[in-house]
């Protein structure tokens, strides 16, 4: 274990960059997972921890968990609270932060099974929404999540944390576009979720598997080219003056009905 | 219209306080609504705008809407961007912010109708969750929302914004406890949402009206005394390693099924 007391240490500087820069995460193939529980989730799902940062206090408070994390991490660096705060994305840091190799789940999408049920996200932008969507997708046992490459970065610390570790466990794939994914997999029955009273009400939809529900951007919905590539249009019937649901709520309701 | 250029102006100082202090909001009976759309929502729902703060740029950009807001607001104060930022809770302020009298919807709960369907929130703490829950409650046409007084403040700027204006339109009431509300209204059939495999699965529940679903705190769920006061226990069946859903997602799924 290394003890680092300078914020100019190269490992610390790199972690600070990984926190805020999606470009840096892409370039290095690394991302951050913060919090004891999420670090443990990473270990249990077999993710590769390159560096574990801890504070002295955290080590003492969670000795047993720390011992396991220390065993699995390639490097362990102990820092003081001030340095930890630079790398942390939370208001009250717990003192555990891992630098992890980005996950490759591409092969989990090699075979589309007859009963597979997917969620496809078209340009979803809000990290809290994306994290919550992954958490719900895991809870409802969705086969996998497809993200268009213009979605917010799945390795954003807010996504990782908001997913409650689901990012480590759920199959996901990032594609150039949802249109391309659907064209490459013509056997998938596609259902575009739209806010349009002409679309089929979700309660009347009989999902034909394998299938994928497509959810769009928070403000603008699904791209025109994506909607065109979908075979079906479905909608969540709403009352009152509400014009739409929060994207993560809409995705959850859609998955709930698809998985029933 | 007043032009204010000092951050020490008493109106500005009061608004800054209202942004961050729930105590100040309670004491003064005032709260903030930020953004053009939410200010318009306030007007259309008949809320009383005590002071409207605008920037010059916002006035020019949205002349027509500003004219309407100006007509309805008791006072209008034009401030520069720097002063506006002090009162704002957003990263890119739009230049519209209203100081509004807190809403009294108590009488909407005087009569519990035979077909009423409520959502009760027991110590829900996260403002983003609460805002999203109100938005969903409106979209699904829930009869009203009951909040225990230890829930996060419904007039928190994040709640108001996250509700997309639903806070102005949906009936809500703040009670000392959910237990008290249920005891005072014994005709209401109560359904406690719990994470417990012994509870009835949501898909098997036949809701008897009038009814209320009770949703609890993000980390600890429903209080023991509240659960005891409920006649039924229901649960959202989950798969995989997910231990729970985000509170606003769980509330949405529960309301979706209740309102079907």
In a few lines, what is going on in this structure?
Two copies of one chain form a homodimer. Chain A has 260 residues and is of the alpha/beta class.
CATH topology of the largest domain in chain A: Alpha/beta knot
Strand content of chain A: 15-25%
Strands in their spatial order, largest beta sheet of chain A: 8-7-6-11-9-12-10
Whole-number total of structural domains of chain A: 2
- Uncertain ranges of chain A: none
Question: What's the total helix number of chain A?
Answer: 12
- The appropriate CATH architecture of the largest domain in chain A is 3-Layer(aba) Sandwich
The profile of the biggest β sheet of chain A is: 7 strands, parallel
Number of strands of chain A: 12
The rounded distance between the terminal residues' Cα atoms of chain A is 49 Å
Organism (chains A, B): Ruminococcus intestinalis
Domain RNA 2-O ribose methyltransferase substrate binding (chains A, B): 32-106
Protein name (chains A, B): RNA methyltransferase
GO molecular function, one term (chains A, B): methyltransferase activity
Verbal overview:
2 copies of one chain form a homodimer. With 260 residues, chain A is of the alpha/beta class. The first copy, chain A, has 2 domains: 100 residues, Ribosomal protein L30/S12 (60s Ribosomal Protein L30, Chain: A, 2-Layer Sandwich), CATH 3.30.1330.30; 154 residues, SPOUT methyltransferase, trefoil knot domain (Alpha/beta knot). In chain A, 38% of the residues lie in helices and 22% in strands. Chain A has 12 helices and 12 strands. In chain A, the strands form 2 sheets. The first copy, chain A, has a 7-stranded parallel β-sheet with strand order 8-7-6-11-9-12-10. Chain A has a 5-stranded mixed β-sheet with strand order 1-4-3-5-2, sandwiched between helices. In chain A, helix 7 packs parallel to helix 12. The longest helix of chain A has 13 residues. Chain A starts with a strand and ends with a helix. The relative contact order of chain A is 0.14. Chains A, B: Belongs to the class IV-like SAM-binding methyltransferase superfamily. RNA methyltransferase TrmH family. Chains A, B: This is RNA methyltransferase.
